[in-house]
Structures are given as structure tokens and as C-alpha cells.
Design a protein that fits this description.
This is DUF6950 domain-containing protein. The protein is an alpha+beta fold. Helix content is about 30%, strand content about 25%. It is built from four helices and six strands, in the order ααααββββββ.
């Protein structure tokens, strides 16, 4: 799976309607959000086996054990090339404090809450906690 030449426009079109969409396990959580972003950029859903298989936090853990590689990080390691978080580029997948998002250079975009507002949030790079990163490949 490789980014399409117009991946930036595709990613922007994917993000726009999600800006104020509330978190929902299995429909709009960190895993489905990041997978949707990758699908927008590449045309390939990297996590189709998880869709429709959980609706709670406990269900997501069970799905990772049953369908994935046991943890979200191990599942991503099996699907993407791991990169040093300091080398993450726009469009790469980032995990900070166990939360998945998409790198936007100096920050990541993720599903979350800021005050009373739910939707997409921005987490600045200097405050990423125990970050991990995975490359979404460019076209050959």
C-alpha cells in the first residue's frame, strides 16, 4: 500500500467531516480513525478485519488478541514499517500514550476531547508520551 500522488488532498477531504465527530468504539476511535486516514491516502484499508468486531474498550482488547497480534502496537508493527518518532513525516501513523493519530509535522491529529468539544484534537510533538511511529509508504 502506497500513498497516491494526491494523498494530501485525499487526507484533507477525509479529515474535514470528522472535525466534530464524537468518539465511538469500533466506528470512530483511534484505530478506525488512523486506518481511515491510511485508506484515504492509499486507497487500501489496512485494518478491515477489525471493522464491526467491537463496540467497547474491552471488545477492542479482545479483538486485538483474537484478530490482531495481541496489542495495537504489535498489530501495527506487522502491517507497517516502524520508524523513529523523531523521523515521522506528515501522514505517518503516531502512537502517543497508547492513542493513535496521524502526524502533521509538529503535531499529531487524533480523536479525542478538548474541554467540552469532542472530535479531532491536536497534540503537539513536544508533549508526545512514549511515542511510536509507522511509515505510510510513498508511491514507488
Amino acid at each position: 500500500m502506497h500513498r497516491k500522488p494526491d494523498w494530501e488532498a485525499r487526507l484533507a477531504a477525509y479529515l474535514d467531516p470528522l472535525r466534530l465527530r464524537a468518539f465511538a468504539w469500533g466506528r470512530h476511535d483511534c484505530c478506525t480513525f488512523a486506518a481511515g486516514a491510511v485508506e484515504a491516502m492509499t486507497g487500501v484499508d489496512p485494518m478491515p478485519e477489525f471493522r464491526g468486531h467491537y463496540t467497547t474498550a474491552r471488545g477492542s482488547v479482545r479483538a486485538l488478541r483474537r484478530i490482531g497480534r495481541g496489542t495495537l502496537a504489535a498489530t501495527l508493527d506487522a502491517k507497517f514499517e516502524s520508524v523513529e518518532p523523531s523521523l515521522a513525516q506528515r501522514g505517518d501513523i503516531i502512537m502517543s500514550s497508547g492513542l493513535l493519530g496521524i502526524c502533521f509535522g509538529a503535531f499529531l491529529i487524533a480523536v479525542g476531547r478538548e474541554g467540552e468539544r469532542e472530535g479531532l484534537i491536536r497534540i503537539d510533538r513536544p508533549v508526545w508520551v512514549e511515542p511510536r511511529a509507522w511509515r505510510v509508504q510513498y508511491g514507488s
